[in-house]
Write a structure and sequence with these properties.
The complex is a heterodimer of chains A (127) and B (131).
Chain A: H1 6-10, H2 19-46, H3 52-60, H4 64-90, H5 94-123
Chain B: H1 19-49, H2 52-63, H3 65-92, H4 99-129
Helix pairs in contact in B: 1-2, 1-3, 2-3, 3-4
Classes of the chains: A mainly alpha (127), B mainly alpha (131).
Chain lengths: 127, 131
């Protein structure tokens, strides 16, 4: 005999198993990305013809490294949340879905961490 | 387990194209493209850690006609996704839900994205000096 309540049985059976947090983090990172991406477009235009030396100076200038790292974190976090929804919506096969979700999450972490580490290498202790 | 052979909804082949559905799928497609842009941005920054030669290679690749085409697409995608994202945030607050407002804000988002894309590239060529 099943002693669990109806609520207990259905909990965790949704598409993401974690809906509210997903929704909320998507809004939070989205809001953060409004100023961050606008700042980045402004900067990228100025860096479009930059040499390596000019780029390195720009990365290390004042708040730029922190803004870059914040941008990278929010961007990959927001991106993988969005890609997750697309996969969940359009991939009916459970095994393909899982494989893609794992690949997306791993790729976001790998690219995001590598990019943050790159910013640190270009700024911390560089001479 | 869900059956795999159930009909899909909405039936795209009989679904009348509307500004609302068009912008909705455009939001997703620009989001997908921007995810690719995120990888591009990361690669750009990472290339600088490999030294001047690697960074100059990345710069000339992005500065080629094909690179510029991608960047132009990313500029539009960003402005569209950003403006439409704000539209979504408005809906989260329960604002702008009636049909006329949904259509008006949708058209405003499109105009915003096109105008800002043109302005950005115009400013880019004016400030940096193009070829």
């Amino acid at each position: 005999m099943d002693m669990r309540t109806p609520l207990g049985r259905v909990r965790g059976l949704g598409s993401t198993n974690d809906g509210v947090k997903h929704w909320w983090m998507q809004r939070l990172t989205g809001m953060a990305l409004i100023p961050l991406t606008l700042w980045f477009v402004y900067s990228a235009v100025q860096m479009s013809e930059a040499s390596h030396a000019e780029f390195t100076v720009w990365v290390g200038t004042q708040g730029n490294p922190v803004l870059l790292i914040l941008l990278i974190i929010c961007m990959f976090h927001h991106g993988q949340l969005g890609l997750q929804v697309v996969v969940e919506d359009y991939i009916p096969s459970e095994s393909t879905k899982m494989t893609l979700l794992i690949a997306i999450k791993f790729a976001a972490i790998v690219f995001g961490t590598s990019a943050v580490f790159a910013v640190l290498r270009l700024t911390v202790g560089s001479s | 387990m869900a059956s795999q052979n159930r009909p899909l909804s909405p039936h795209l082949q009989i679904y009348k194209p509307q500004i609302t559905s068009f912008l909705s799928i455009t939001h997703r497609m620009t989001g997908l493209f921007l995810a690719f842009g995120a990888v591009l941005l990361a690669s750009w920054v990472i290339s600088a850690t490999y030294g001047p030669e690697a960074f100059e290679n990345a710069q000339s690749l992005l500065g080629s006609w094909f690179g510029k085409l991608i960047l132009l697409g990313l500029t539009f995608s960003l402005y569209f996704h950003l403006a439409n994202g704000i539209r979504h945030l408005g809906w989260d607050f329960g604002l702008g839900f009636d049909l006329t407002k949904v259509q008006a804000t949708g058209i405003a988002v499109l105009i915003f994205a096109v105008v800002l894309t043109v302005l950005t590239w115009f400013a880019g060529y004016a400030i940096v000096g193009g070829y």
